[in-house]
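Extended Data, panel c. Modelled sequence:
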Amino acid sequence: MKRTVRVRKLAWIISLVGVVLLITAISVIMFARSPSTSQNAQKAQKTPTTAPAKPAVYFHTLPPGAKLPSSAECARLVNESPSPELRPTNARFNHRRGQHVPPGFFPQGDSSQVEQLAPLINGDFTGTTEDILRWAACKWGIDQDVVFAQAAVESAWQQNFLGDWTTDATRCPADHGLGADGVAGQCPESYGILQNNFPLEQAAWPGIALSTAMNADVTYAIWRSCYNGDEIWLNNEPQGRPYTAGDVWGCVGRWFAGSWYTSAADRYISRVQDYLSERIWLQPTFAHTLPTPGPGA
């Protein structure tokens, strides 16, 4: 009797194990055939791996006499990490390329080696305002943040800004005569994002007014000529110290004052340095800061 019970009990256990194994097998088969599972597996196989965004190149100051990158090389580097537009009003100027300048663009008082720089000026780039400034910084080997700060001082990054108003019509372009730009009896001598001066840069007209890239290109070609030590005429002008090559800030001040570390140059340098320290172009209010053209602007 006891043996019969044991046999029946063993048979019952074996049957139960068999049922459990059968249910498990059916579940595995159904899971494997599940459309959502197979589709998810296919999606996982087909989903491409997104490469991380390439970090933007930061352009630093290159030493005097350094080999400078080409316009095309700088355009490639800038376009690898494009920047958003902070100045939509610059659109038509940003999408217009510049022009070449004649061999005699630089003043006769410069050293003869400056002639190597004139053929490089072309304003050959289009992009956002920040990208254009970065392109110019790359091309002429100047720290890009110095460029950002100086452009903020000059125009708050506004290419249509007009400045240095005068009553002398001979110092203004023919199509910008007295009263033509909305100020009775006056006309602007300086144009664009970096306030290039028409009487001194007539060979670059009209590009310095119509093209943001041309405006920046000319500005930092002149800065580079100063930085390389080519502007030897500065030693014949009022100065706070002897002119030397390799002085970033002396050449920034010269842009405004036309002289070397004079009081006017020092004040301008200090203002650009303040904007650089603040990184004003990154402040929330900068996008809404627009200078007002007019006498004395």
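The two ends are 117 Å apart (CA to CA). This feature is highlighted in the accompanying rendering.
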